[in-house]
Amino acid sequence: MTTETSSSSATTEQAQDVALFEVHKKIQVRAVSGIFATWRWALVWFTQLLFYGLCWLPWNGRQAVLLDLVERKFYIFGLVFWPQDVIFLAGLLIISAYSLFLFTAVGGRLWCGYACPQTVYTEIFLWIEQKIEGDRNARMKLDAAPMSARKFMIRGSRYAAWVAVALWTGFTFVGYFTPIKTLSSELMTLSFGPWETFWILFYGAFTYAFAGHLREQVCKYMCPYARFQGVMFDPDTLTITYDEERGEPRGTRKKGADYKTQGKGDCVDCGICVQVCPTGIDIRQGLQYECIGCAACIDACDQVMEKMAYPKGLIRYSTEHAIAQHWGWKDIAGHIVRPRVVIYTVILVAITAAWFWGLANKPVLRVDVIRDRATLAREVENGLIENLYRLQVMNVSESAERYSMSVTGLPGIRLAGETEIEVPAASNKSILVQVRVPPESGKQGSNVVFFDVKSTRNDKIAVHEKATFLIPR
């Protein structure tokens, strides 16, 4: 009796033993070639040449793109952005967001599949892995093999190559915040500052971990875009689609066999579409949030269809409506222009136009007038009333400028002392200004005055700034 009770209790405990997390299975991605693979590698080359090369490009005696946090100035070719220009950063983020909405509504996860840094660096790390360890089958055999000197050497070479790429990526990233030539000199003497060392190692470690080990887990579990993409799709959004009506029922067969009489569809159930998928999904099960839209399965399936002498396009870019109603590309293209796409486009064009207009009309001179709070007003020689101001003159242009200063607004008002100031390119200078008026020039209390600062070589570069002048009671 006791034995039966114990057995029943054990069975109950086993039945309640439920796994809360999916066991991670390593994905060994099969190499694939084709038009979409070519496009993906073209984007890899473009983005990485831009990232690794742009920081070395000189411009007017300085780095062309430099985000100088210490000086609180961003240099982007001929443009200099100050903290006051944060509106341009906000505008750029809004443009990026609406671009993402528009491209996703039209073509699905184009960003994820072709230009996302996670996709780009995973492609690079996979290429290194394939060159060192071999193709998919060779890598799987190496995984299953016991540790040996050969396996240790191969794996060590792969990890060393990954670390080199990751550290160079971290070094380049920091080179956009610390001048890359300065950083290079510090590299030669290993004299990095503490923050530079931290960020090189931090960014390098994340590149190594995300592209080398986490890979599809970043897309499936960490990236929020995969989760909310569903609300950005509609039945007319182009996505990677398996033509179930044409492909099912799937099954193996010999080339040239009359599979139609056997009741089979075009899918030969080779599984290559799954083997080339970087997230390890089976696109034949329908659209899934794990799909990053890389189109590797399209290239793979087209190659199989070509070998079997079947029409290509069993897996293709299509829409839900197109599959259901058997539309061709002409009909699909006709449904791309729809209300949400028009709205996204109009808003994006308007914001982009406003952003470029603001950029084109960005002032090259800024002046801040700050009253000296220690001495609001005082009487000086000849009974004149004097107020002190600190003028913060910012030269946003790429050349040194000399500015003349004057003040208006009250009869007899004038500046005491220097009336000109020279400011180097992309710099600011602070100057203490003494303003004097006869006591009868204005009313007791606060009076409105104006400071005029203009370039001595170009009258169009000028600022008219309002201030207040205090006359004691």
Annotate the secondary structure layout:
Elements: H1 2-15, H2 35-54, E1 58-59, E2 62-63, E3 65-68, E4 73-76, E5 79-81, H3 86-107, H4 110-115, H5 117-133, H6 136-144, H7 149-174, H8 180-189, H9 194-214, H10 216-222, H11 225-228, E6 239-242, H12 244-247, H13 272-275, H14 296-307, E7 315-318, H15 320-325, H16 329-334, H17 339-360, E8 365-371, E9 378-379, E10 385-395, E11 401-408, E12 414-416, E13 420-423, E14 427-437, E15 445-455, E16 462-471
Antiparallel strand pairs: 1-2, 3-4, 4-5, 6-7, 8-10, 9-10, 10-14, 11-13, 11-15, 12-14, 15-16
Helix pairs in contact: 2-5, 3-17, 5-7, 5-9, 7-9
Structure characterization notes:
Helices cover 44% and strands 19% of the residues. The chain is an alpha+beta fold. Among the domains are: 234-327, no CATH class; 365-471, Immunoglobulins (Immunoglobulin-like), CATH 2.60.40.10. A hairpin with a 4-residue loop joins strand 3 (65-68) and strand 4 (73-76). The longest helix has 26 residues, at 149-174. The radius of gyration is 33 Å and the shape is elongated. The N and C termini lie far apart (107 Å). This is Cytochrome c oxidase accessory protein FixG. Residues 258-286 form the 4Fe-4S ferredoxin-type domain.
